Amino acid sequence: MLEQLVTRRKLILLASVSSLLSGCSMFSSDRYSYQPVSYDNSEGSKVLRTAMSQYGAKYKYGKASPSDGFDCSGLIFWAYGKHGITVPRHTAAQSKAGKWVAARNARQGDIVVFRIGRRLHTGLVADKGRFLHAPSSGGYVRMESLSGVYWKNKIVGYRRIV
């Protein structure tokens, strides 16, 4: 299992490097079309960098580790935990953790909260317009646009932990 995970990550890295060098993506799947993130020195940026290390990891409901996979709140719980920062494990509690920040003030590592039907979903702000998340069953940890057709009208707010 670990060998498969390492092989998958190598393929993703290879596709990313190849994409950067060739100027176009080799794959149409979002999980392979990685665009680099510019990190700063903030605590939130450090948390985001840790979460980004799991780019391409498999979604698994109720899980929060590289070996088992991640659900949306599990990725956030794990990434913050790696920096000794405690955040709630579940989405509903994450949606109330820390303090509220306006969208225009959101920065790397802030939690972005979405309402999808009656459920909540969380991700981490990557930069001005993208977020990292573990989307759903059958999915992989990936980046998406906050202004994308699916996501932009589902944003409930942003929470700052650090």
UniProtKB/TrEMBL annotation:
Name of the protein in its database record: Glycoside hydrolase
BP terms from Gene Ontology: proteolysis
All residue ranges annotated as the NlpC/P60 domain in the record: 41-162
GO molecular function, one term: cysteine-type peptidase activity
Keyword Hydrolase tagged: yes
Assigned keywords, A-Z: Hydrolase, Protease, Thiol protease
Family named by the database record: Belongs to the peptidase C40 family.
